[in-house]
Amino acid sequence: MYIAFLNPQGNFDKNDSFWTEHPDFGGQLVYVKEIAIAMSLLGHTVDIITRQIHDNKFNVFSNKFDEYLGYRNVRIVRIPCGPKEFINKEQLWEHLEEWTENIVKFFKEQEMKPDFITGHYGDGGLAATMLKQKLNIPYSFTGHSLGAQKLDKLRLKGENLETLEKKYHFAKRIEAERTAIKYANIIFVSTVQEQHQQYSHIFYKDITKNMQDQFVVAPPGANTKVFSSSDQDFDLEYYSKFIEICNRDIKKDRIDLPYIISASRLDDKKNHLGLVKAYASDKKLQKQANLAISVRGVDNVFIDYSNLKEQEKVIIEEILEIINKAKLKGKVTFISINSQLELASFYRFMARKKSVFTLTALYEPFGLAPIEAMSAGLPAVVTKYGGPADVLEENNTKFGVLVDVHDEKQIAEGLKEALDNFSYYQSLGIERVHSKYTWLSTAKTYANQIEKVLNHTKSDDEINIHDFFSKPSSINIDLEFIKNKIRETEN
Question: For a Cys staple, 119 with which of 123, 125, 284, 345, CB 3.0–4.6 Å?
Answer without folding.
Answer: 125
